[in-house]
Design a protein that fits this description.
By secondary structure, the protein is of the alpha/beta class. The protein has helices at residues 39-52, 77-90, 110-117, 133-139, 145-157, 176-188, 206-212, 221-237, 256-262, 289-297, 310-323, 330-337, 339-353, 369-372, 375-382; strands spanning 11-18, 61-69, 93-103, 123-129, 163-169, 193-198, 241-244, 247-249, 267-270, 275-277, 281-285, 303-307, 328-329, 358-361, 364-367. It has a nine-stranded mixed β-sheet, with helices on both faces. The protein has a three-stranded antiparallel β-sheet with strand order 10-11-12, with no helix packed on it. It starts with 10 loop residues before the first strand and ends with a helix.
């Protein structure tokens, strides 16, 4: 990487959206294309946007780079290196930067893993979802159960130690026994970080259509709640810290990139549909590959911008802080936004301390395990106008 720095504060993150997938998972509503026809042009546009947006992070050191999508593991190691080098030539990048690639197991053959070992990538996010063949077929995943196990072994054998896997729970086919087996197998591999998500039915996805037409059963909230509760118990017993509602880490293995999102650190999003945040505003690029590439070719960023009001900023803090192990700190709210806001929020939070959904410690409010089941409802009740 071309440019490095030492102990510069504050820090920032860069997210790169690679909008290509081999096939469409039935539950996914992210922006992607299953055609690689325009891959070279898209990668040129992404590198050009990195340069065009040089001033966005105001010279702050880049502490995390996250290659997401889509499926970044479809790219060759050389293509990834070109993107990472463009960032290094454009920004000051910490020598200890966390550089994550999202990967599907079917891409992680021995040659690809060896090639990635020679890049600056130092963290993998591997989309396992389930170790059961019938579940993967139901989701329309591109990989098999065996490929999931093989990918984890290969990445570990290659010497990568900073790995997270995704698991999904709360869909009708996932029996309690299978869910326990998925968790225990992941723990058995020694994976230090696990992200686990309840299956949600997003509009305009094949899954939503199947349920509407009666071809698939709807999701069951009670099943999701039971499996989430077991998730908390099993991973806690295995030494994991439940540091954000959907994220569990062994000591020292939290995701720096996602933690920055939740802590309100500025980040730059590059690529079609990518979001950026600088403390004052949010912006997002057009979710259309052709429009994105043609705009960038003309030196224009195809984006929309939302300037954040005080109430926007408070509500974003409340939503993210509530999901974290540290909880909502009303001393921070007072310092950042004024005491009247913290008093208002405290009054709204008080209703949830009585029913054991929230614990109050000084001016800090954190969710109990039961409260985590109702986090979205609690967040909606404490939003400020």
């Amino acid at each position: 990487m071309a440019s490095t720095c030492h102990n510069i504060d504050p820090v920032a993150g860069i997210y790169i959206h690679i909008p290509f997938c081999k096939k469409a998972c039935h539950y996914c509503d992210f922006h992607f294309s299953t055609s690689l026809t325009y891959k070279a042009g898209m990668l040129d546009a992404i590198r050009k946007e990195i340069v065009l947006r040089k001033s966005y992070l105001r010279g702050e050191a880049v502490e995390t780079i996250y290659l997401g999508g889509g499926t970044p593991s479809l790219l060759y190691a050389g293509e990834l290196t070109q993107i990472i080098d463009t960032i290094g030539n454009t920004h000051t990048v910490s020598p200890t930067a966390e550089i994550t690639i999202e990967a599907n197991p079917d891409d992680l053959d021995p040659a690809r893993v060896r090639a990635l070992r020679a890049t600056d990538v130092n963290r993998f996010s591997i989309g396992i979802q389930s170790f059961f063949e019938e579940d993967l077929r139901w989701m329309n995943r591109a990989h098999t159960a065996q490929e999931g196990e093989d990918a984890l072994k290969r990445v570990l054998d290659a010497g990568f130690t900073n790995i997270t896997t995704d698991l999904i729970y709360g869909f009708p086919q996932l029996s309690p026994e299978k869910w326990t087996a998925n968790m225990e197998k992941t723990i058995g591999f020694g994976i230090p970080h696990i992200s686990a998500y309840a299956m949600t039915v997003e509009p305009k996805t094949p899954l939503a259509s199947f349920i509407t037409r009666g071809k698939e059963a709807p999701m069951n909230d009670l099943q999701s709640a039971r499996q989430f509760t077991e998730l908390m118990n099993v991973l806690r017993s295995a030494g994991f810290e439940h540091y954000e509602i959907s994220n569990f880490a062994l000591p020292g293995k939290r995701s720096k990139h996602n933690s920055n999102y939740w802590n309100g650190v500025p980040y730059l999003g590059i690529g079609p549909s990518a979001h950026s945040y600088n403390g004052d505003s949010r912006q997002w690029n057009v979710a259309n590959n052709a429009k994105y590439m043609s705009s960038i070719a003309e030196g224009a960023i195809p984006r929309e911008i939302e300037v954040l009001t005080v109430s926007n900023r408070i509500n974003e803090y409340l939503m993210t802080a509530l999901r974290k192990i540290e909880g909502i700190d009303l001393d921070h709210v007072s310092a950042a936004f004024g005491t009247p806001y913290s008093r208002l929020i405290e009054a709204d939070l008080r209703q949830f301390t009585g029913n054991n959904w929230i614990i109050k410690s000084g001016m800090r409010f954190t969710l109990t395990d039961e409260g985590k089941l109702f986090a979205d409802h609690i967040a909606s009740e404490i939003m400020v106008e």
